[in-house]
Specification:
This protein is 35% helix and 15% strand. The protein is of the alpha/beta class and 278 residues long. It has one domain: TIM Barrel, CATH 3.20.20.
Length: 278
């Protein structure tokens, strides 16, 4: 069975998503009900909601919405990675609210849409360090050219548990493996970083990719982080840009064909259950 650590749900009737205007293929509602149909067919037994970069004024409302969705009959939702703005003075107060909510499992601030030097700001780094000891994680969502800043952020907060999204967002469609390969190896040296094998079909050519296309990126990430520091995520509905949830799950099983049962369990569910206390 699988724990999906990276599920987006979109409801434009209650929340605002400014970035959707630039991604027409995703500019519609994606409900938990739609997801569960395919998720159950794929063997997904639980999921973590991943924040969807809502309008900053809707950050608290997004968490409240997700908690409501989790109460639906047979919901797969077991927690949420919530949005945050560590560059703002209000982060400390938001952290205290999130710490008091057992449904919240971590934070994410999408950095690939922000200036490269955002995470270098003193207030940003100070606020990230505040997460230490809370049991909450911080997801790193960066482009390959921002990996230098990501590594520097990790080094300034050695007691915070980080999770690197989407194998570091490699340019699979363009065949880009360098300097991605060396960057993954470097950030994986930090024991407080886990690697998320999530939704990379979205970065491949949707008409031509195969398991062989994905293999170098998945295997290198696992090799660098090791089986005890990798988790799996769908990145639904973003993964629909590259073939969809069922195709990504099938490819994952094919990529793990040579792994032991213990290794497969760690990647697909065990590590996630331990990391987020599910």
């Amino acid at each position: 069975m699988i724990v999906d650590t990276h599920l987006h749900l979109i409801d434009r009737t209650v929340l605002r998503y400014p970035w959707l205007a630039g991604v027409s293929a995703l500019d519609r509602d994606f409900s938990q009900g739609d997801y569960m149909v395919e998720a159950r067919r794929a063997g997904i037994e639980a999921a973590l909601f991943m924040e969807v970069d809502v309008d900053v004024a809707d950050i608290e409302a997004e968490l409240a919405c997700v908690e409501g969705w989790a109460k639906a009959p047979e919901s797969l939702l077991r927690g949420a990675i919530v949005s945050c703005r560590p560059e703002q003075t209000g982060f400390a107060a938001w952290l205290e609210k999130v710490k008091a909510n057992s449904f919240a499992k971590g934070f994410r601030r999408v950095l690939h849409v922000a200036p490269d030097d955002l995470s270098e700001q003193p207030l940003f780094r100070e606020n990230i360090r505040r997460i230490a000891g809370s049991g909450l994680t911080f997801d790193l969502c960066v482009l390959p050219h921002q990996m230098k800043q990501a590594i520097a952020l990790v080094d300034t907060a050695p007691h915070v548990q980080f999770v690197l999204d989407h194998c570091g967002v490699p340019d699979i469609k363009g065949g880009g493996e360098h300097p991605w390969r060396s960057n993954i190896a470097e950030i994986a040296k930090r024991p407080n970083v886990a690697g998320k094998i999530s939704g990379i079909v979205a970065y491949a050519d949707p008409g031509t990719w195969t398991v062989g296309t994905l293999r170098p990126y998945v295997e290198h990430t696992i090799e660098c982080f090791g089986w005890d520091r990798v988790v799996w995520g769908s990145d639904w509905p973003v993964c629909t840009l590259g073939g969809g949830l069922l195709g990504w799950v099938a490819s994952t099983h094919a990529l793990l064909a040579g792994a032991s049962e213990d290794e497969r369990v760690k990647l697909l569910s065990g590590n996630a259950k331990r990391l987020w206390r599910l």
